[in-house]
Amino acid sequence: MAVMTGHSRDKTRLRRRAWGLAALFWVLAAACSWADETRLQLTPGRCITLHQGQVCSQTIKVAYSLASPQTVCLWDAASRSRVGCASAAQLGNFTLAFKSAEKRLYQLRSQSDDRLLAEAWVEVAWVYKSNSHKQSQWRLF
Residue 23: which domain range? Predict the structure, then answer.
């Protein structure tokens, strides 16, 4: 077992502090880069029906954050239709009336140049999978 002198204990403490500061700097740098990203969040991200193939209807909350204020529009990628637009803001939210039997992709686009900024899916799930063959209503016993 090595015996540590006062000088080597100070070096060890200094190294630990340096690693701690480096880790703190890395976390802060990651947080700053996250703030520069464009984010689109659809809540809930899943709509649940009773049986497979049924149309799912649900109100979805849409929230977004942008790196800089701009006018943006939300698009339904499948139907290529504009759902709604929001005026120049860095943060925004609104509601969406979701109706579909399948998952749908929504895209946040810049209104000025139609540039894709972010996209998110709303999944459709079901409790009971549909049977390929129907059961007969008639039973012998």
Answer: 8-35
